[in-house]
Amino acid sequence: MNETPLFSPEHDAFRATLKKFLDDELTANIASWEEAGVPDPEFWRKAGALGLLAPFIPEQYGGPGGDFLHHLIICEELGACAAGASAGVALESGLIAGHILNFGTEEQKSYWLPKICSGEAIVSVGMTEPHTGSDVQAIRTTAVRDGDDYVINGSKIYISGGLITGLNVLAAKTNPELGGRGVSLFLVDPETPGFIRGRNLKKMGKKGSDLAELFFDDLRVPASCMLGKEGEGFKILMSELPKERLTIGIRSLAAAELAFEMTLDFVKQREAFGQKVIDFQNTQFKLAEMKTELTVGRAFMNDCIARVKRGDFDNSLSAMAKLWLSELEWRVMDQCVQLHGGAGYMDEYPISKLFTAARIHRIYGGTSEIMKYSIGRAL
Q: Which residues are identified as catalytic?
């Protein structure tokens, strides 16, 4: 009995276009990104011209008219590309366009979605603050109503793409006494007075991407910039969370598979004590363990994709996918560095950058501990 393929010929053609684009525009230029510590915004404009940004956005809003599986392919291929380890979220940032598509007004959708899809507006999310990470309900940035405007004060930290963003989806407390029910979202043009970009923060990995501090000093935005209704911000952010966690899972898995293949090739070539490293029983056992875990991980991911297509992929399963696959990636990366020996510690070998990039996957999008809490709460 033949199984229905997960991806259609249209998806396969999209993947082929994406692979070539990543070879031509990411792999070829990643060294300059790493040196600058900031991606080249032209990358997004070129991607937009090929329909590679937020591919699930309908044509009426300037998108390619694809689906979420197209976006999953983007995340998978970024993981499967060695340069993707340095590139940060890159093309994945378009996922936030789903919030605008699902909750925005017609005016907001017509204005922002074409800009996102064309690469004119690189989108970022202003959520994490210095004193809170996964606990969005504890944010302190405030938005106070003043006539037809809101005046925003506060700060954000660890904002991917914050230095190059053309649109920030900013979370702020409109009613601090209500906790999560007091969080609202605003679509903010970073050129608005009072929107201040801070430092490009130094980090362990993903050296070709920026990670910024943002400050808001009496930032005045029209009430029409609010995404959804007042107090709906937390609900809106959570609505796309299952998809976000699955994208982290598939990128983690693809990167782990890439690391394994690189390591397999390395140990077949490398000699120690008069024989190939792969000829040692310990090497074979480690490779066997990794291959088995990766095969199980791929089967799990395929089941998740099938569930997405059927419409029965839920919050609990997304937490399981993010937890299991990011932890799997970390185990594989650690073993792959070990099998590279001293070479694994050197940046000239891609495994080093894959290793440091992998560390954040167990943190962003919700830490592994938050995933366990989410899974356990649903039992």
A: 244
